[in-house]
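>> received
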Amino acid sequence: MKQIIAALAVLISFTSVAQDLSKKQEAVKQVIESAYVKAIHNNGEIAAIDEGFHPGFEMLIKNRNDGLSKYPIYNWRESAKKRKAKNPEGPKEETTAKYPMIDVTDDAAVVKVELYKKDKKIFTDYISLYKFKDGWKIVGKIYHKHS
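>> returned
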């Protein structure tokens, strides 16, 4: 009987941990969906960018000479703002996302995001997030552009 009770306690504990991880993964996914996919790629609300990206965010871009360039959020935000002003209705073809990997460890997360237009994969992104007092924030990104 003690073994059954111990096994049930372990099972309940494991289920609780799994549910907590699932909630964290969903929260991380929602930040990326709102601030990145909808706001950056699909001319969504600029306020969503401010909400989901940390002011210290930088995208690292690999150059042809194997160097790196940095693209800070304030530049990307201004580009998104200009696109939205030119085309308030958004793009003709929306960008959609798939999330093959969401890995969360306490207050740190990394997410593999595949972006599509008309079922054609256009980017594979690797996005890093931290959880701050006011929630999850996107802090960095690297990517691969598909031909």
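>> Helices lie at 2-41, 46-52, 73-86.
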